[in-house]
């Protein structure tokens, strides 16, 4: 695997620093939510509904209650009512964020298979598991709808989707007239299997009460989101709930919204008067943490003979839950990628017997861009243009949706760099052969929005008299390396070596920042950390200037630099002193500052997107239906790179997830039972090392002065979008057949897709 990183920076920011938590993770010292040892710890096991729709007619827990070690069996008959079901809000807001506006075990209705119907608490996990099998539940089953084909005729157009944040219909110009007048049209339906996140760490919460105060160890993308959601559900002031989540072992959106289990763990702990650990099984993760919904997208492109787009119509149909109008926003970025005056995007939903779908790895962009970029490849063929040239011809200098200029761009350079890295000029020649393998090249453009939080982001920085610092914000490291990156940002702003700086997160007792979702963590938190650390440095410099005992007494603060913890005159570096000397001389044990950053207003006169380009080389055996991705080359323009190593890892991981989306991932529903048929890692395929091709990650430098103080646009998800269409387009190049379904399977290659 190769990479071109930005030129090494002078200070800590940008350097390919190893993870500060790497040692703790590989030695097992890092503690996850289901590993917290507590005196008197008890264990809870969930029982899920066997039917997808209906009612509980009887629930008999006597035998379970009598089983050895059992402390409580909670059902809708004895759990008690929740205080209030908070509204659905993306957890980016940093407040309440329930996974769905339904809470189980409040009544006898069953809305989806696997819905929690009982919770068994015992003194050991094994005893709780055993007793959970003794809970007898009888159901009156009703017909269910779980797949598009069962509910097509009852689809409706919601006013808004995505927790109300995105309108159900978006239009500009006159798409009908423009399609009628277009020289060329491409019109197809694209289908997508449902997907599940499958992080390595399954969700878990450990809860205990001390009087009326609750402590929750949760595996989450945002401790504050858990705190506020559980507070609302339990009717307990959030100030009495502390949520700790130091490490999260992968998430991909499954821990962005707060699902039912942390609140259930808290309720169970209150009931038994002891700490309760509630860890979901892998199978339960398929019904208790949301999923990417099955979907169909109908895309129509209209263009002139020159390949310039004149019309884009994009309709999506997908199942949602009985409670919420949720769809991932697949039409978003696909409608903003290219200049196109006439546009119509429409979401349609089907009420289905599943949990509310949720964010999952590049939610919306990854599917919407598959339809768009596959259709663009076909358009290139129809107008006889190189696919790369077609993209450049439709390049948009501003956001076609809002008309606002991009705060920074880089798409053109990404397209050119990616083409260079994959050797795109080879595509002009007839596809190559390697024995039975036909070789194809494909490409796609990609983009991901730059999301900002709604509330100010805060951090705290403290310097001790020994010259070391601790900097804090409530962010959780979900595997991205944010603890490392924030250490670098803090060290740079304070003028300290990274070894003397420690960053702490993952605790609601720390200054509040929004959840790590939507690729926004690095941008948001670095802004707050930078503000706090800079404020502390200014405070220390001001103290030195005011101190008669300091060599810097009376100097102009603006003329002072700090390097390696030493404040010096920029023009006379021999004059100065260490932070530590200043504090020790004055008998000051520590000094502290907080900093906050408010995001740009939503009506700011620019639009922000992280752009990139994806290229794939595949080998296809058309007789056996095999596809092997040999190379992926991605070029991205994510703004300031805070750590060359972790940024590259994020993008490379995203690209491999893109390969996974293209060729592997599918959760199959059994409509007869309304249950997911392959709810295990044995049958839900995710890529392993042997599936990973040669991955080339390349950076295009762009400066963005408006998204946040450091110009960080995010690398969490843009690496995934565009990979699946690049692979599908490469397959078309190799064998001459279009793939319009994900994942692409052996059958699709053999039968013609
Ligand atoms: Mo990420 S799928 O936006 O949590």
From TrEMBL:
Sequence segments annotated as region (Disordered): 1-20
**Is Cell inner membrane among the key words of this record?**
no
Q: Does the keyword Oxidoreductase apply?
A: yes
A Pfam family hit: MoCoBD_2
Q: Which InterPro entries match?
A: Ald_Oxase/Xan_DH_a/b, Ald_Oxase/Xan_DH_a/b_sf, Ald_Oxase/xanthine_DH-like, AldOxase/xan_DH_MoCoBD1, AldOxase/xan_DH_MoCoBD2, AldOxase/xan_DH_Mopterin-bd_sf
* Gene3D superfamilies given in the database record: Aldehyde oxidase/xanthine dehydrogenase, a/b hammerhead, Aldehyde oxidase/xanthine dehydrogenase, molybdopterin binding domain
Q: What is this protein called?
A: Carbon-monoxide dehydrogenase large subunit
Listed SUPFAM superfamilies: CO dehydrogenase molybdoprotein N-domain-like, Molybdenum cofactor-binding domain
Q: What is the lineage of its organism?
A: Bacteria, Bacillati, Actinomycetota, Actinomycetes, Kitasatosporales
- Which organism does this sequence originate in? Streptomyces lasiicapitis
Please list the residue ranges annotated as the Aldehyde oxidase/xanthine dehydrogenase a/b hammerhead domain: 27-143
